Amino acid sequence: METLSSLPNIPINSAVLKASLSNLKYPKNKISDMEKSGELIRLKKDLYVNNDVAISKELIANHLYGISYVSLETALAYYGMIPERVYVVRSMTTKRAKSFETPLGNFEYKTVSEDYFNIGLRQEIIENQYAFLISTPTKAVCDMIVATPNLRLQSVKAMLNYLMEDLRIDFDVLKNLDKDIVRQCIEVGKKKGELTILLECLENK
């Protein structure tokens, strides 16, 4: 698509699109035509992606609703920590919980406090140009415990069963989790009892 070839391969709003079509008398009409023809995909009101190029769903997740970072089963699958394929891109945010159904997939966001949000994050770079925010492997495990409703893990045995049987995380992967990140999550997060048991599991590895 010549009119969008110079645009960054990230979700873009109508202001950016109109700037790229500034040579046209009615750029808004052109955007509408592109959406109808399938050249543009609208993710939500005033947010689009170029349908001619592949785009990371994790990158979309960051732009679709923020401030947010990719986590939970999505991050565990991204790092190869669980065998199952993940069909919903799940993230954590400091804003209210929300979900989106888009032509490129479903996206879900869980709420955490700002102090907890800022622990254990990293940036993944795409094509040396774009970056998305994602939890570290350890933070993803903590998020699973914190964000899963009605999850009560009151012993080391129950925690190991959850991690290795329910989530199917390999024992060798568990040994490499970052205990300092778990300690920070205990200080500011919910489910301190369960996270303390997680720490105990890791310290005994």
SSE order, one letter for each helix or strand: HHEEHEHEEEHEEHHHHH
Total number of helical segments?
10
Classification by helices and strands: alpha+beta
Query: Largest sheet, order of strands side by side?
Result: 3-4-6-5
Helical proportion? Answer: 40-55%
Low-confidence stretches: none
* Overall 3D shape: elongated
N→C terminal distance = 54 Å
Give Rg in angstroms.
20 Å
Mean pLDDT over the residues: 90
Q: Biggest sheet, in brief?
A: 4 strands, mixed
Number of beta-strand segments? 8
Describe how the helices and strands are arranged.
Layout: H1 14-20, H2 27-37, E1 40-44, E2 47-50, H3 57-64, E3 68-70, H4 72-78, E4 88-93, E5 98-102, E6 105-111, H5 114-117, E7 121-126, E8 130-135, H6 137-147, H7 156-166, H8 171-175, H9 179-188, H10 192-203
Parallel strand pairs: 4-6
Antiparallel strand pairs: 1-2, 3-4, 5-6, 7-8
Helix pairs in contact: 4-6, 9-10
Structure explained in plain terms:
The chain has helices at 14-20, 27-37, 57-64, 72-78, 114-117, 137-147, 156-166, 171-175, 179-188, 192-203; strands at 40-44, 47-50, 68-70, 88-93, 98-102, 105-111, 121-126, 130-135. A hairpin with a 3-residue loop joins strand 7 and strand 8 (130-135). The chain has ten helices and eight strands. It starts with 13 loop residues before the first helix and ends with a helix. By secondary structure, the chain is an alpha+beta fold. A four-stranded mixed beta sheet has the order 3-4-6-5. It has a two-stranded antiparallel ribbon with strand order 1-2. It has a two-stranded antiparallel ribbon with strand order 7-8. It has two domains: 8-50; 57-203, no CATH class. Helices cover 42% and strands 20% of the residues.
